[in-house]
Write a structure and sequence with these properties.
2 copies of one chain form a homodimer. Chain A is α+β, with helices and mostly antiparallel strands and 221 residues long. Chain A is built from 9 helices and 9 strands. A 4-stranded antiparallel beta sheet of chain A has the order 2-6-4-5. Chain A is elongated, with a radius of gyration of 20 Å. In chain A, 38% of the residues are buried. Chains A and B meet through α3, α4 and α5 of A and α3, α4 and α5 of B. Chain B binds a DNA duplex (30 and 30 nucleotides) through α8.
Chain lengths: 221, 221
DNA sequence: AAGCTTTAAGTGACATTGTCACTTAAAAAT
DNA sequence: ATTTTTAAGTGACAATGTCACTTAAAGCTT
């Protein structure tokens, strides 16, 4: 089956779980498609599946009382949702919300099957732990960046990671503010400065990089 | 043995692992004592044990290039070190450092024993996962606080959690800044404001709360 | 096509927090 | 009783966040 290969390519550790431990990933799990903009979990939700993202992307973020948001991380193909995984094991309230940014194809492994695999396959456990470790590192890195890095650096980094001279970034200043945990006005000001220096070209909903090296130079410190 | 009872009280899930799954926690693990101020891990360290903290406290923090630090979390009795746990499974570089804040008594479970327990005992897995989930939540909450909460609120919260009208807090402004991810001068200014309002009394290395309710009222928003 | 409506972005004044280059003062060490 | 170390204070300034708006572009609506 085509899907099997895709999955095993995306999740190399599962490959081992299948070949060494005889885990039949597909037998007791279900492929699901979730349309863009769907909230897949929020605070206090119960969770009944272990989710492996095959295609598309999920945005995980928190919201403050005053409405400000900050993106914690994205789950893209090859990633799994550790928050719902935690939920599977110790059922606590998670202070975050997950929304699909695009149509998402995922493999849903039901809780009892997940638990069985955890007991049977060392490779499966490794896969699960690996995603945990990954998230932990990403979150720690995020704390570090928020606390220490200046906004112009973080913004330049984002621009370089999400666009190039030929491929403009299609996003709003508001979305960027959420992504970086800042405020729209601050992002607008900073982008305007970049534009004045001739590093980017701004249009409603679109940012074009016009001087890659200058932006990269900011990061070089 | 006295120690067994202490451990099983601190880690209720392990209790189950012992009684239901016949795991002999003490047989293949070692009780260790680590003096105050010891670095138990930093970036890139290899880790050979799963650590359960029985007594004392470990501070986990990151350091920026310019020397500024922020405390990510503390591990106290009943906690385990998930960063080293991650390290046990997927060996990546962790962007954090762990230092004992007091003398620490810990149970060290060697990597092979840890892996065996993970395969054998559902309760043991639960214990491990539970600490992971906990950390994840704490880190997300930290991101939220750093991003959204004002410093006076966070400072007041810290003061109330770590002292009372009768028990002064023994710490420096610098340590407080690290704890909250701010700068010493900022903490000093804010504390001085609290003092001017008659909410605290400041002395070198000591902060006394003189008006609990006023501080608590700040939190109530 | 001209006018509404919605959404994105700009603006200036101001508050909060962080940085820098110091000074002052308390505690510890010799 | 000095010196040395460590903690805290200070003022000027820079960076970021907040507020209450305005302006402008893009999508609808008839």
């Amino acid at each position: 089956m085509e899907l099997t290969n895709t999955i095993l390519q995306l999740f190399p550790k599962l490959n081992e779980a299948v070949s060494k431990d005889g885990i039949n990933i597909l037998k007791h799990s279900q492929q699901i498609t979730i349309p863009e903009g769907t909230t897949i979990f929020h605070q206090g939700d119960q969770c009944l599946n272990y989710l492996l993202v095959i295609a598309g992307s999920v945005k995980v973020f928190t919201r403050a009382e005053n409405g400000r948001e900050i993106v914690l991380y994205h789950i893209s193909s090859g990633g799994s949702c550790v928050l719902t995984t935690s939920c599977l094991i110790s059922s606590e309230d998670y202070p975050a919300e997950g929304v699909t940014e695009t149509d998402v194809v995922a493999l849903a492994i039901p809780k009892p099957v997940f638990e069985q695999y955890m007991g049977e396959s060392k490779a499966f456990r490794k896969q699960v732990f690996h995603s945990y470790g990954d998230r932990l590192i990403k979150l720690i890195t995020l704390v570090e960046e928020i606390s220490f890095a200046k906004l112009d650096i973080r913004l330049a980094k984002y621009l370089l990671e999400n666009g190039s001279v030929n491929t403009p970034i299609r996003t709003t200043h508001q979305a960027l503010a959420t992504e970086l945990g800042s405020a729209r006005e601050v992002i607008s000001r900073q982008l305007k400065e970049f534009e004045n220096k001739g590093w980017v070209l701004l249009n409603r909903g679109k940012i074009e990089i016009t001087n890659h090296d200058a932006l990269a130079n900011l990061l070089a410190h």
